[in-house]
Amino acid sequence: MKYTVLTLFPEIIDAFFASSIMAKAVSRGIVEYQPVNIRDFAQDKHHTCDDAPYGGGAGMLMLPEPLGLALESVGAAKKGDSHLFEAADTGRVIYLSPGGVPFTQELARELAQEEELILLCGRYEGIDQRIIDAYVDDEICVGDYVLSSGEVAALAVIDATYRLVDRVITPESLEEESFSGGLLEYPQYTRPEVYDTLRVPELLLSGHHENIRRWRLRKRVEKTLTLRPDLIRRGEALDLFDGETRKLIQELGGLSDEKPVESGGEKDERNTGD
């Protein structure tokens, strides 16, 4: 997997790829990255990358010329002109945007199958729409909150996807984590057995694997019902749950009749870097 990140602040990207599991994945050749400084493609001596938006309004907008040149430098093809790049595999171009689709674990799994992701980081009030129309394959939003940095959002996408790439993490570690099977993860404990009068649940010390499995499933259902009932509704709609899980949902009270509030209503403040 290759991550190409177009940014005004490449040092943020460099620091991330030099740390922890990611650094090991890079050193083993499983993951590759290329930070591209958008300022290198600016048209004037001051390396200007922004200007006031047409129509007025607060803030500045990133200019299309440096962005277009930066994208073309990494092989991104204009929509409708992909025949110009037939000799090369072009990466999937993603713009981190408040108007994008929500970033989910399912989308992370999909993106992890790509050979290259080209991540475009916005700043200020965002980027000129013509760049989105000409080059961007996906607009992605990492959450219903406001960020000043597209780099932060890009790193969230990178972190969620690279760990799903083959050989980065052992497959067993991914099997029962949050969102697998439509549920959140169960509580975890380690040494010591007693911490400040709080004990590890006795069942986890029993060595009885089947009882531990059932306890963990029950805790997953319990936690998801309490914190993310929307995931239970979604799991039921998509038929993700087996008979044992469905029975536990009912035993633990099931779902109320209240419907969840849909994200992204009339006021869309999902922001991943504008």
From TrEMBL:
Keywords: Cytoplasm, Methyltransferase, S-adenosyl-L-methionine, Transferase, tRNA processing. One of its GO terms (biological process) is tRNA N1-guanine methylation. Its EC number is 2.1.1.228. The keyword tRNA processing applies. Residues 252-274 are annotated as: Disordered. Residues 256-274 have a biased composition (Basic and acidic residues). Residues 1-233 form the tRNA methyltransferase TRMD/TRM10-type domain. PANTHER family: TRNA (GUANINE-N(1)-)-METHYLTRANSFERASE (PTHR46417). HAMAP family: TrmD. Specifically methylates guanosine-37 in various tRNAs. This is tRNA (guanine-N(1)-)-methyltransferase. The gene is trmD.
